[in-house]
Specification:
single chain, mainly alpha, 2 domains, 4 helices, 86% helix, elongated
Length: 140
């Protein structure tokens, strides 16, 4: 069974993504002529992008928690705790003052990107420690 996509399938995916991007771009350009509607369309698009990046980042943490042993799993769980706390701060501030945290999507997106860097660093450190332990226990 061949599970690798062929070139034709890859080209179809690229065309589909390009077409979808053009649809979003044309809708955004058309809405800028309209007036108040573009802000709503852009806000929705930005929130969807931020949500996708955040969910992808959280999935990486959850996969690491499930695959790694207890201590490294805790290292992977720390960013999720940070996201929960920061989301609580944003939500509380928005309830108290609706004008605060007007760039909350940027704050969440920044967390997702910093979390990706953190997870790559944790994976590299875990691999280095495992390699060192393996070399230390090898018989001579």
């Amino acid at each position: 069974m061949n599970i690798r996509p062929d070139r034709n399938m890859k080209a179809q995916h690229c065309l589909w993504v390009a077409g979808l991007s053009l649809c979003f771009a044309s809708a955004a350009m058309a809405s800028t002529v309209g007036g108040a509607a573009p802000a709503t369309a852009w806000n929705l698009l930005i929130m969807l992008i931020v949500l996708a990046a955040t969910v992808g980042s959280i999935v990486l943490n959850i996969a690491a928690i499930r695959q790694w042993d207890r201590n490294w799993g805790l290292v992977s769980a720390l960013p999720i705790l940070g996201l929960v706390l920061w989301s609580g701060i944003i939500l509380t501030a928005k309830i108290i003052d609706p004008d605060s945290h007007s760039l909350w999507t940027l704050e969440i997106f920044a967390w997702a990107m910093i979390n990706m860097i953190y997870m790559v660093t944790a994976m590299t450190a875990k691999r280095m420690f495992a390699k060192r332990d393996e070399e230390g226990s090898a018989p001579y």
